[in-house]
Amino acid sequence: MRVYGDRLSGNCYKIQLLLHHLGTAHEWVDVDILRGDTRTERFLALNANGKIPVLELDDGRVLPESNAILNYLADGTDFLPDDAWARAQVLAWQFFEQYSHEPAVAVARFIVRYQGTPEARREELARCQARAKDALLVMERHLAGHEFFVGGRMTIADFSLYAYTHVAHEGGVTLEAYPAIRAWLDRVAGHPRHSVMAEGGA
User: Fold this and answer.
1) Residue 107: which of 3, 10, 33, 200 has the closest Cα?
2) How does DSSP classify residue 196?
3) Which residues, in sequence order, are CB contacts of 77 under 8 Å at separation 6+?
4) What is the three-class DSSP state of 187?
5) CB within 8 A of 113, min separation 6: which ones?
6) According to a count of CB atoms within 10 Å of the terminal CB, is the N or C end of the chain lower?
7) pLDDT digit string (tens) for 29-58?
8) φ, ψ at 59 (rounded to 5°)
9) Is 137 helix (H, G, I), strand (E, B) or coil?
10) How far, in Å, are 6, 7, 35, 53, 94 from residue 32 at the CA level?
11) What is the chain's mean pLDDT, rounded?
12) Cβ distance 15 to 195 under 8 Å?
């Protein structure tokens, strides 16, 4: 299988984390989003939405969207529960990540680290930082009573939320007020099969 992704992307980093934990053989095809690689005719033939990551199977089937890829790759493994209720909880946290967490935490980080906080985006940054704190508070309250997000063990829900949370400070969102989140980050990073994000990742 092939994974088309940018090693500087948190959404691609989720896939990297799972593949490293599973030890799954794959080819990584670098796609530079900052250079416009996702807008080329060749890439748009893979994903008309022009976004990464994209998973291409040996038989030619193509799957976009980071959390959909995580669910496909984790099926039948310890990182995705068999129980229907537990699987639904994993999905709930992944929807939370995409709708409440990533649009705030990841966008704030991009504005600060990769755009240098341009004047035209300062108000947007402030809104993202406020929304990020709201999302982190939801996570903090849950993790105050749980080691991981679902079922007392690491699942793809943790991978989905870890990717941008562990670099939230790079968007001006510190984690000092969230001790349960910091302890959870340490648990995820402490796994012997953990894989770090590419240096300078976005």
Assistant:
1) 10
2) P
3) 22
4) helix
5) 170, 171, 202
6) N
7) 999 888 899 999 999 999 999 999 999 999
8) -90, 5
9) helix
10) 6, 8, 5, 11, 25
11) 95
12) no
